[in-house]
Design a protein that fits this description.
This protein is of the alpha/beta class. 42% of the residues lie in helices and 21% in strands. The protein is built from 20 helices and 20 strands. A six-stranded mixed sheet has the order 5-6-7-3-8-9, sandwiched between helices. The protein has a six-stranded mixed sheet with strand order 14-17-18-12-19-20. Helix 7 packs antiparallel against helix 8 and helix 18 runs antiparallel to helix 20. The chain starts with 5 loop residues before the first strand and ends with a helix. The relative contact order is 0.09.
Amino acid sequence: MAPPLLQLKDIALTFGGTPLLTGAELSVSTGERVSLVGRNGSGKSTLLKIAAQLVEPDRGSVFVQPGALVRYLPQEPDFSGFASTLAYVEAGLRPTDDRYIARHLLEQLGLTGKEDPAHLSGGEARRASLARVLAPSPDILLLDEPTNHLDLTTIEWLERDLDARRTALVIISHDRRFLSTLSRSTVWLDRGCTRRIERGFGHFEEWRDMLLAEEEREQHKLDRKIAAEEHWMRYGVTGRRKRNMRRVGHLQALREARRTYRAFAGDATITAGSAGMSGALVIEAKGIGKSYGGRAIVCDFSTRIQRGDRIGIIGPNGSGKTTLINMLTGVLPPDSGTVRLGSTLAIATLNQHRDSLDPDITVKQALTGGDGDTVSVNGVGKHVIGYMKDFLFASDQARTPLGKLSGGERGRLMLAQALAKSSNLLILDEPTNDLDMETLDVLEDMIGDYPGTVLLISHDRDFLDRLVSGVIVPEGEGCWTEYAGGYSDMLTQRGADLTRDPAKQDKEKPTKSTAAAEPSAPKRKMKFKEKHALETLPKTIAALLAKASELQGKLDDPQFYSRDRAGFEKVTTELGETQRKLAAAEEQWLELEILREELAG
């Protein structure tokens, strides 16, 4: 085996009272690809800073092979003192490096080099910092969340670039597909210690679950041993003092092992406040358009979003994803076209701007609105400490200023704020940024079980494939297209990735003359029964909605079941039947409305 380029041994570090690292180790040889994984707050970023020799551990050794060049990509780069992005990247080069490579990488990443670092967006800052660490072709790259704020096109470019290099990699990332593509070994940082498997991230979760199951069995055995020893102490033979003292010492050792055992942190308990059902039609957009400074952001886009849909909006940074979602939800009026929102909509929004949080207020103040000890969830008060624990915050973090939280903790806090609101339409803008794998799993389950509708902006391909039923993608020059399925399904239908030339796409479309040459089918008219149903169904739907709401109100009484079990079962059955009729009526109305529009236009 090749000697390590970088080796950390028995690393210990304590911030405050609880040790953060107690025996962490990391070894990286030439060309190795290591994914570093663990819960938010477990110390991954700190361990990477120790490897980069930016933080001094309390105990342990750090070895870097003489002459080996190490470059570290922080989550929040420091641009102070640089007049342009080119100057920032060139400062990372060695005297012998070709200066041209800095400009070349910036161009590859969509920057000119003239940008003012003080006015960069999150995506631009991440691309500039990537150019800086890639430019000198280091022997070891330490990458902390390299895909954060990057669009899908740039993530796929970065994957290809890193895969082609001989550089050794240590990667912290929430992007499962990115880690699975690049990693060949996985280091799990858990409760201060590291464990390693010589396989890529794709095998990590199965291995982790196996280790945790074995650990649970060992703790169960320990509990049984303690119970047996305590029983002997109470009722056993009292003779042979020396033997008794040895068993007393053994019992004390067992108790100490149990006392010092740090259990694996449980999963987050993420639930979204429900505002009851919306109408079957949630959003209908017809020919909407928006331009800024002569540039078309959205041009003649139409869509129909129904209750229960999960729609992903993807595309390069600056393509207009947020503008489109703001128009669809009525926040921003379109320059042309119309947007119709469905009935009884209650919208909850999670934006991606972590810096919008006031760094001086505490976690408790952020969740309660500044006063009191309760958070209103679904209109019911819940103690703030209990709600914090649902999102994996410790009770002693209630008074922690938001400026002291990690990126993942800020992400969980913003989720907690957004999901406390009652809603039936969730707008999630980059919800996966900075979240650990376990929290992502719970978030996926929550979105999968959410009874309402979800509009999701994300650059996480695996997250999109697992959740969405359709994606909306920019095709260039303000044109957007909706595809069925997830990200991978979109690529299959589209036949290319997001960098496809829109001009080529236009050539593939049938021309007007070709379309005009095709014979048109004779138009049919709506039948009398169809017209009558279209006119009367809205009243029927309104009556069924009112009845469903009334029945649900009865079931919401916590004493109803214990007071009248038969009545409770009757109302439950009646509610199910009413909801079935409501769904059928709404489906029929939608089909007739679509038919009417097709015949009219």
